[in-house]
Structure formats: structure tokens, C-alpha cells
């Protein structure tokens, strides 16, 4: 019995080693080499985006589509990846987000995302119209007290902290996104670290009017400098 057991054991080891050798012998697939961003290819992809965001990326409030032209390229790319991978736009109460997530899935790979972002970055800047009312001074005070540490003293955002620019972005869109964070409609996915962090910060303001005050401050003439 002992000899038979040893034979079976050794046979199992032999088979395991053979399997390892076969796995080692299998060549690894060639890595996908991403090409440099091509705005011309991106223009073709943007035809789909233009249906909601407009030919010049200026946005359309009636369709829930914000202006894209003043958003930092890294931020646009990050959000497209989140939409495409399900980290954003798949909450049952996010109808606008679901629409965007479906559209993002039409971008077949990261190269397509890189190209369309490059095209958006080539569009002319245009500052959006102010739609909210509030107290500029109150908004400035609360912004520097709560928001500025992450989004920067001038609202320019920072890629290192994954905080987008708030300058030149539609105030109605920022209002809706803040409300979505507060309701956990956005930032719900465990892998969306930046979104979850913003979700926690979204309970820092005392009321909705204070949010409007901050958004009015961000729309002030002295703040209307489009970040590089």
C-alpha cells in the first residue's frame, strides 16, 4: 500500500510539473500598443457625442448634456472610462448617467477614448451662461473653507487628486452632480475611490442655497479663466 501510495503521489507531482511546463511553453499574447491620440479619428467618434453635447461640445441642458470644452482632458477621459466600465451611470436612479454609460460603450477601446478626448480638447473654449442665483461672498467663503483644499484655490482642479476643474463648467450640471453624490447616485461603486471621497464631502454644506452660492462664486467674472 505504501509503494502504491508513493507511486500515485509521484505520478501526481509528475503530472503537475508537466502541466507547468506546458503553461510555461505557451507564449504570452502580444501587448496592445496604444497609438498617440489622433483628433481626426476622434472627430468620427464625436459624431455620436454631438447628438447630445452639440457639434462644438457646448452642451444642451434639455438633454442633460453639459458643455465639454472647458473640462480638463484627463478628467473627460477618466469619466468616459468610468461610464464605460460601469463605475458611473449604472445606479437605478441615474437616468442621465445611464444614457451616457450606454453611449460610452460605443467606444470600442481605450484608443477610441483617447482619440475622442483629443478632439474635444481641440474645440474652441466657450464659457457657459450662469443659470443660478446666490451670494458671491458667501460662496467664496464656503468654497475656500470646504472645496478649495481639493479643487484648488481657483477651482482649477488637480489630476494628482483626481479632482476636476470647476471653472467653465455648467452650474446646473455641477449642482446636479453634487446632489447625486449626496444621494449616493454617483460615487456608489466601491472601485470609484474619487467618487466615494466626493460622496463623503457632499454632506459638508448646510443647505442647497450654500451650494448655489458656491456655484455663483465659481461663475464670477474674475474666476472665468479656463485652466490649461
TrEMBL record:
UniProt entry tagged with the keyword GTP-binding: no
GO molecular function: electron transfer activity; heme binding; metal ion binding
Domain Cytochrome c: residue ranges: 37-124, 134-222
Keywords (A to Z) from UniProt: Heme, Iron, Metal-binding, Signal
Pfam families registered for this protein in UniProt: Cytochrom_C
Superkingdom field: Bacteria
Signal peptide: 1-21
Protein name per its UniProtKB record: Cytochrome C
Source organism (scientific name): Paremcibacter congregatus
Amino acid at each position: 500500500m505504501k509503494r502504491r501510495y508513493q507511486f500515485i503521489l509521484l505520478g501526481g507531482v509528475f503530472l503537475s510539473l508537466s502541466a507547468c511546463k506546458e503553461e510555461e511553453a505557451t507564449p504570452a499574447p502580444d501587448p496592445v500598443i496604444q497609438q498617440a491620440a489622433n483628433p481626426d479619428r476622434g472627430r468620427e467618434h464625436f459624431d455620436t457625442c454631438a447628438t447630445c453635447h452639440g457639434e462644438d461640445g457646448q452642451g444642451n441642458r434639455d438633454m442633460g448634456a453639459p458643455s465639454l470644452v472647458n473640462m480638463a482632458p484627463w478628467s473627460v477621459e477618466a469619466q468616459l472610462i468610468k461610464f464605460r466600465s460601469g463605475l458611473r451611470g449604472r445606479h437605478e436612479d441615474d437616468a442621465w448617467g445611464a444614457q451616457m454609460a450606454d453611449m460610452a460603450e460605443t467606444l470600442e477601446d481605450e484608443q477610441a477614448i483617447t482619440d475622442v478626448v483629443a478632439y474635444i480638447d481641440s474645440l474652441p473654449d466657450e464659457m457657459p451662461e450662469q443659470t443660478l442665483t446666490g451670494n458671491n461672498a458667501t460662496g467664496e467663503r464656503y468654497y475656500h473653507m470646504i472645496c478649495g483644499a481639493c479643487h484648488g484655490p481657483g477651482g482649477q482642479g488637480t489630476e494628482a487628486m483626481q479632482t476636476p476643474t470647476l471653472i467653465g463648467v455648467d452650474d446646473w450640471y455641477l449642482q446636479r452632480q453634487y446632489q447625486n453624490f449626496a444621494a449616493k447616485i454617483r460615487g456608489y461603486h466601491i472601485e470609484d475611490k474619487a467618487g466615494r471621497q466626493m460622496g463623503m464631502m457632499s454632506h459638508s454644506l448646510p443647505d442647497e442655497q450654500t451650494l448655489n452660492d458656491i456655484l455663483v462664486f465659481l461663475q464670477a467674472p474674475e474666476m472665468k479663466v479656463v485652466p490649461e
